[in-house]
Design goal:
The protein contains 4 helices and no strands. With about 120 residues, it is an all-alpha fold. It has one domain: Up-down Bundle (de novo design (two linked rop proteins)).
Length: about 120
């Protein structure tokens, strides 16, 4: 097995891009939201990155799939926070749209990985 194979995966690269976007969005939030909903969005965004990386080091497809399931859940959580912030209209709409597109792409890629692993 290739060491650190996740670094070459598109899904990992997009998860990192999403995390960077989430951090930028969070830093622009009003202070009353930054340390509550902002911190949660940062944790869920980082969880996507870390679970993809951790899962890639597992020896079985079953274990890798489990980590991809967790990453998928964190992707959904991150998108839910983006959706709530969009409704509140307290974050830059263009940045929110870009983050949402990344969530959709990551979700599709994780789903594709999961289908491939089941075969």
């Amino acid at each position: 097995m290739e060491a650190f194979r996740f670094k070459n995966w598109s899904v990992y690269k997009e998860a990192k891009a999403l995390f960077m976007s989430v951090v930028k969005i969070t830093h622009e939030l009003p202070s009353e939201y930054r340390y509550t909903i902002g911190d949660q969005m940062i944790r869920s965004g980082l969880s996507i990155v870390l679970n993809i990386a951790e899962g890639s080091g597992k020896e079985s497809d079953k274990e890798l799939n489990r980590y991809f399931n967790i990453a998928m859940g964190s992707t959904n959580e991150t998108l839910a926070v983006i959706d709530v912030l969009s409704d509140l209209r307290i974050a830059d709409e263009k940045k929110m749209e870009e983050a949402e597109k990344l969530c959709v792409s990551i979700s599709k890629q994780l789903g594709g990985f999961k289908k491939k692993l089941k075969k």
